Amino acid sequence: MGACASRNGLLAINLAHSPTRGGRPPAALPADRQADVIVVGAGVAGLSAAVRLQQGGARPLVLEAGDGVGGRVRTDVVDGYLLDRGFQIFLTGEAGVAVLGHKWTSDHHLTLVSVSTVGTYGELSDSALEAAVRAHLTTWFGAAEVGSWSHLRTYRIAFAQPNQAPPTNFTRPVALGGGLFVCGDHRDSATLDGAIKSGRRAAEALLA
């Protein structure tokens, strides 16, 4: 059975008649060398689907081509600082956030300023992109303030967010037909909750 997956999501396929490379099943299969479902992509949605599939009695096999699980949600260590990257949303206007800021102040009284752009700007070098971002932020905070900031790292994450300009359908189909199911934040809202929910929907559609 062939398979294809849209970006940011996963694909689940029934293994009953699926050939394997070299005629032998992958080494990652369970001890009895059998799996009911393949989950391609160990992002948040894929992991959510795998958990729900297992809860429903299926035996999923999760495949990931990257160097770790979690999809776009990662924490990097840069010069001793922890940088969270991905699609988490933290609204500083929420009640209690200001209180936490005073309670958990950095020992060095430093603040992480994270800036996102619309597009990856492949035509610009990292230094040119940093200069353009600094120039724009200078109009907000002033040259002296922005000039005192140290650049830590630039991430260029293609397809970091699905296009959800209104009107938007937050319950896009997960069953594509032919035993194929897809999930990801492009199936629901572009949030962590949407990714988890879409994984559960895809798993439940497959189990039905």
Morphology: elongated
Task: Quickly count the domains.
Answer: 2
Distance between the termini: 20 Å
What would you give as the CATH superfamily of the largest domain?
A: FAD/NAD(P)-binding domain
**SS-based structural class?**
alpha+beta
Low-confidence stretches: 1-27
| Overall CATH architecture of the largest domain | 3-Layer(bba) Sandwich
The H-and-E topology, N to C, reads as: EEHEEEHHHEEH
Q: Number of helix segments?
A: 5
Topology:
Elements lengths: L9 E5 L22 E4 L3 H12 L4 E4 L10 E5 L2 E5 L11 H7 L22 H16 L1 H5 L27 E3 L2 E4 L8 H16 L1
Parallel strand pairs: 2-3
Antiparallel strand pairs: 1-2, 1-7, 4-5, 6-7
Structure write-up:
This protein is of the alpha+beta class. It contains five helices and seven strands; from the N terminus they run E-E-H-E-E-E-H-H-H-E-E-H. The chain is elongated and about 60 Å long.
Summarize the structure.
It holds the Pfam family NAD_binding_8. With 208 residues, this protein is an alpha+beta fold.
